[in-house]
Amino acid sequence: MKRSNRLVLLIGVFLAIVAFVAIILLQGGSSGRPTSEVPTDADTVIATSDIPLGSRITAEQVTTEKKKLTARDADAFGDPSQVIGQVVRQQVTAGQAITARTLTAEGQIKNLEVPTGKRAITVQVDQVTGVGTLIKTGDYVDMVVAVPKDNFPVVAVNPTARSYSILYQEGTGIYGTSVKVLLQGMQVLGTLLPPPTTTTQDQQQQGAQPSAQPGTALNGQQEIVALAVDAQQAEVIKFAQMLNREDAISLILRSPDDFIDPATGKPYET
After folding, report:
1. Is 86:57 a contact under the CB 8 Å cutoff?
2. What is the pLDDT of residues 23-48, one digit of tens each?
């Protein structure tokens, strides 16, 4: 074999060895490099028991479970500390995930679940008569009614028939305006607020700035509040609405702790 041919053969073998070593090094480097796996599931806060509307979530009522991201609500919570002590704004059943929607009221009446034995009736309040229109679904409220002297009712009770009727004092009479807390402990089934205001192009050109906190500015905003009541409470509310005064009805916001048994997490028996 000629010397030139042997040289070409040696060079070829050398290049083959170099290529083989390079492949080994590349494979070894890639296998030793840590790989980041995309998570497919996440902790999700789950109710362990039914949680009544308007009650505060306790530590005993929630736990965490691993859920696939594809089957998990985008606004679900992953840590119980994020929800403990919060008031639920919708009925929660055991096994249901706790989400942001569970704890926030959307401000729109969509579906009303009227409790057994109750009726739903709506009243309209403003920022002065409705606690700043901050009343939310699940809250408990009292109702204060201001009755002017011209409409002061005289109640006639019929013990035999176990009924009563409302008579009205004619003229100015001798009565002055009466303000009474007539109804207590009514639960809010839903609320209706106007849509948030947006700054139009003309307002922007005039230098008007959008409110930094929509719904909290003193702007005369009104709110519709749906209440769970019994038949007699509905009569009182209708009477107050017929007074034709915007300030005849005021709602007072109550603490849910006044109506929820802390030991059981359920509403007190009434």
Report:
1. yes
2. 776 666 555 555 567 778 889 999 99
Q: CB of 57 within 8 A of CB of 85? A: yes
Candidate from 15-19, 138-142, 250-254 with smallest mean pLDDT: 15-19
How far is it, in rounded angstroms, from Cα 253 to Cα 225?
12
What secondary structure letter does DSSP report for 53? T
Strands ordered across the beta sheet of 178-192: 119-126, 222-229, 178-192, 140-147, 249-254
CA distances in angstroms from 115 to 119, 120, 228, listed in the order given:
8, 9, 7
Closest listed residue to residue 124, CA positions, set 250, 31, 214: 250
Taking the C-alpha atoms of residue 185 and residue 187, their distance in angstroms, rounded to an integer, is 6
Q: How far is CA 80 from CA 84, 97, 127, 232, 262, in A?
A: 6, 11, 34, 41, 18
Buried b (16+ CB within 10 A) or exposed e, 114-129: eeeebebbbbebbbeb
